[in-house]
Design brief:
single chain, alpha+beta, Uracil-DNA Glycosylase, subunit E, three-stranded mixed beta sheet, 4 helices, 3 strands, about 15% strand, globular
């Protein structure tokens, strides 16, 4: 992975949280600036909304829920459209 452009500026190495054996998997596109800084997916306003949605169906972050992003790379190195080679090599879930 070190030869890929996205990896050259990788800050948060695969932002994810929760139980990897959970029944629920939630996947975001890529960490934004706040997620990249805190190294946790879905924080800030989006995180509050997600936490409220999980609570509405009787779930909570980290309790039988695994949250990650398709791309490991934070907002500082994302372009409008990552190259398909970068996307295929930068998967963080799995």
């Amino acid at each position: 992975m070190s030869g890929l452009r996205l990896a050259q500026d990788l800050h948060a190495n695969g932002v994810r949280v929760g139980d990897e054996q959970a029944d629920w998997l939630l996947v975001g596109e890529a960490p934004g600036a706040e997620e990249d800084a805190r190294r946790e997916p879905f924080v800030g306003q989006a995180g509050r909304l997600l936490d409220n949605m999980l609570a509405a169906i009787g779930l909570a972050r980290g309790e039988n829920v695994y949250i990650c992003n398709v791309l490991k790379c934070g907002s500082r190195c994302l372009r409008a459209e990552p190259a398909s080679r970068e996307f295929a090599s930068d998967l963080s879930c799995g």
